[in-house]
Design goal:
By secondary structure, the chain is α/β, with parallel strands linked by helices. The chain has two domains: about 140 residues, NAD(P)-binding Rossmann-like Domain (Rossmann fold), CATH 3.40.50; about 160 residues, Lactate dehydrogenase/glycoside hydrolase, family 4, C-terminal (L-2-Hydroxyisocaproate Dehydrogenase, Chain A, domain 2, Alpha-Beta Complex), CATH 3.90.110.10. The chain is about 40% helix and about 20% strand.
Length: about 300
């Protein structure tokens, strides 16, 4: 495992540049290299972000090439085609798989031994592709998964209940996409079961409220893309949170894309479930309690993702 406190961001589009800017602001790494098929774009982003270092902390930020990856502790892959209005994340799979495989081939040539975070969509499928086409242990290759979806769920619940969203404890699991599952059965607000807390706040129509909030979370990206063409600020903050857990070896539990081998009765699929994140990546999947309905939906999501992967 590289000891250098260095991160590489591959892909300098909206998401990649937002991730780089966010990481700079929080001074998590001492060195950051930006890599893009358009070298001038990477150079421009590195220059622009570097000019804000006066207001943060010293950091070496530069545009580079694949030879700069060898001593990085984390590689963040955001390279890929953008999701267009009306296009699902799974529609992106074939073109972004081709891009990812070309990137992985270059990484393998450098005998890389750090962690790889996949952010490109569809993130669960692409994480599975990376796990299958890399010599790294599976736990060192993980995706941003439903970390952002979970944040959206907590935010909307906080707004609905007029309570600090940081006091809301709930997960979105499964596919980062249309078959994702809100885990309502164990959701709570500071230890108070969600339904009980809702009634404390004067809400009793639980089924309709859950359906409406769940749909709002699932369609958030589509709503943003329709209005501004792309989503990037939210995912950049999610990437920061994931990197914090790894760099600081926090052992934090976050719903990232990880490989399942029998957990939840699922074998041979990579999808988003709560996992312990530390310096060695997604170190262990956390077997949270699910209702029968949630477990059925999770297995359906896994089967759907496995089918897409096998079709590749």
């Amino acid at each position: 495992m590289p000891e250098k406190n260095k991160v590489a961001v591959i892909g300098c589009g909206f998401v990649g540049s937002a991730c780089a800017f966010t990481l700079m602001q929080h001074s998590l790494y001492s060195e950051m290299v930006l890599i893009d098929v358009d070298r001038s774009r990477a150079e421009g982003e590195a220059m622009d972000i570097s000019h804000g270092l006066l207001f943060a902390k010293p950091m070496n930020i530069y545009a580079g090439g694949y030879d700069d990856l060898a001593d990085a502790s984390m590689i963040i892959i955001t390279a890929g085609a953008n999701q267009k209005p009306g296009e699902t994340r799974l529609d992106l799979v074939r073109k972004n798989t081709k891009i990812l495989l070309s990137v992985l081939a270059e990484i393998e040539k450098r005998n890389y031994r750090g962690n790889i975070l996949i952010v490109s969509n569809p993130v669960d499928i692409l994480t599975r592709v990376a796990q299958r086409h890399s010599a790294l242990p599976e736990e060192r290759i993980f995706g941003s998964g439903t970390v952002l979806d979970t944040a959206r769920l907590k935010y909307l619940l906080g707004e609905h209940l007029s309570v600090d969203s940081r006091s809301v404890h709930a997960f979105i699991i499964g596919e980062h996409g249309d078959s994702e599952i809100p885990v309502w059965s164990s959701a709570n607000v500071s230890g108070v079961p969600l339904h009980d807390f809702c009634e404390m706040r004067g809400y009793y129509d639980h089924d309709n409220a859950m359906l409406e909030i769940g749909e709002s979370v699932k369609n958030s990206a589509y709503a943003i893309i329709e209005r501004k063409g792309a989503t990037y600020y939210g995912i950049a903050m999610a990437v920061l949170r994931i990197c914090e857990a790894v760099v600081r070896d926090e052992k934090s539990i976050l719903p990232v894309s990880a490989a399942l081998h029998g957990e939840f009765g699922i074998e041979g699929a990579t999808l988003s479930v709560p996992a312990i994140l530390g310096k060695n990546g997604a170190e262990k999947i956390v077997p949270i309690s699910l209702s029968e309905s949630e477990l059925t939906r999770l297995r359906y999501s896994a089967d759907m993702l496995k089918s897409v992967f096998e079709d590749l």
